[in-house]
Amino acid sequence: MRNKGLLIAAWLAAFAAFAQAGDSEAPLQVRSDDWEADRARDIAVFRGNVTIEKGSLRIEADEVRLRTRDGEVQEGTIIGHPARFTQQPEGRELVEGEAERIEYDAANGIVILTGRAWVRQQGDEIRSETIRYHIDDQRVTATSGERARERVQITIQPREQAGQ
Q1: What's the confidence (pLDDT) of residue 22?
Q2: Where residue 45 falls among pLDDT bands split at 50, 70, 90?
Q3: Domain ranges of the chain
Q4: What's the CA gap between 39 and 105, in Å, rounded?
Q5: Quick one: average pLDDT of 139-152?
Q6: Superfamily of domain covering 2-155
Q7: Could you tell me which of 24, 88, 20, 15 has the C-alpha nearest to residue 50?
Q8: By the 8 A CB rule, do 1 and 7 touch?
Q9: Which residues, at least 6 apart from 128, have a Cβ–Cβ distance to it below 8 Å?
């Protein structure tokens, strides 16, 4: 049983690599109605009312699928109606968002939110069918998609000027 617990921790700790530095030291907690692990294929699936917490990072979903290699998460898929996340970056405002599907690809350093996706921080918000976050160069792209009737919507709040 201890090996199963370590395996789960390795999968999810690596998945949360985009979390804050302080979050990496925090304990990992996963709650779900069901859990299935295929150690031969290095896949774990959590289903039903899934909640993942690690430090300031919180994820809520209907299903979470993780694929690992050598104890490191290589891919993660979070599915929900919608899937939601919040995170409190150190020294910054809360980041929150949701999408029908959130995918993490470690090899390419990308997080993709698909299906009525939105992300908000400090009143700034982006809404789109698809939002891609390129981790290494901190680049964000948003597309409305072929089927989407709505265009990309971005709201940027005015910032206070120094000395005011």
Answers
A1: 64
A2: very high
A3: 2-155
A4: 20
A5: 82
A6: Lipopolysaccharide (LPS) transport protein A like domain (2.60.450.10)
A7: 15
A8: no
A9: 117, 118, 142, 143, 144, 145, 148, 152, 153
